[in-house]
Amino acid sequence: MTGTPVEVRPGLRERKKARTRAAIREHALRLFREQGYDATTVDQIAEAADVSPSTFFRYFPSKEDVVLQDELDILALGHFERQSPGMPTLAAFRAAARDAFAALSPDELARLRETTELTLTVPELRARAMDEFARTIDQIAQAVARRSGHASNEFAVRIMAGAIVGVIVAATMPWSDWANEGQLPDLLGRIDAALAQLEAGLPL
Questions:
Q1: Distance (Å, whole) CA 166 – CA 161
Q2: Does residue 195 sit in the same domain as residue 96?
Q3: Does residue 124 lie within any of the structural domains?
């Protein structure tokens, strides 16, 4: 028997955890703006968010993870899996990226721009971002595998996932035409253009 899926509202415990996680990140980003990333400690973030350092580490394994971990990957993959089954993989991922950005509130979009800028400009974060890229490739490979019926460790699936991450990274890392202007580019525009290039076979 089939029916319309019922959206389950998160329980009180999950909502409280989400609020705590958001508060930690909000205060961390404020302190990074006010005194710089390097000068900000986990103890200072925990005190500002009115939590203990041990509570901080339950939500974020390290200070770097406050910046590097966000919900956009999860949001985009959710939209990816909701695309029409007949849509080609890259077209579905482009649509998912557009849907994910459209779902962001102005505050969430501003936070994404801020964390992206920090990742691109703080050497420790840029180094740690490689771990996040590997994790994201795994997540995309699993989503592509579920959609296509292939195994997530198949060569073609891994290459597809790696190519998606690669073109997005290449499109959003600093370029000489904007890196010195102190402003981030249109992230969605660059991501969509990168995926379009990949979808077209990377023509030159």
A1: 9
A2: yes
A3: yes
